[in-house]
Amino acid sequence: MKTNWHRFSEYLVQSKEPEIQLDISRMHFNENDVLQLEPEMQEAYRQIRELEAGSLANPDEKQMVGHYWLRAPELAPVRELQEEIRNAQDQVMDFAWRVHQGSIPGQTGQKFRHILVIGIGGSHLGPCFL
To answer: Torsion angle of alpha carbons 64, 52, 70, 65, nearest 10°?
Structure first.
C-alpha cells in the first residue's frame, strides 16, 4: 500500500506550459482511471493555451478571458490590452491615493474613515487585489 507521501509524489500534476499544479493524490482512483483521463487532460491543456493566447472564451459576447492579466498585464495577448490594463491600474491607484489624502471626500464632505466592500467570489477579488 502506498503512503500519502508516495501518492503525492506520484500524482502531483505539474505543467510548465500552461503553468498548472494540481494535487490529485488524495482522490480515490486507480491507474486505469488516470490513463482514461489523459486525453481529457491534454484537451484541457490545449484549451488553456488557446485562452491564454487570446481566444474567445465567451463567443456570444465576443470576449477573451484573462483575470490573471490584471496581476500581470504583460501576459495579455495584445499590446493594446496590456496598456489598457496598466492605465486602469494607474487610475485606480490615483483614485485610492486621492481618497487617502482626503481630496475626494465622502458624502459628508469629510475624509473617508471606513469603506464597505460587498462581493462574493470573483467580485470580491478585485478589491482584495487592490
So the answer is: 20
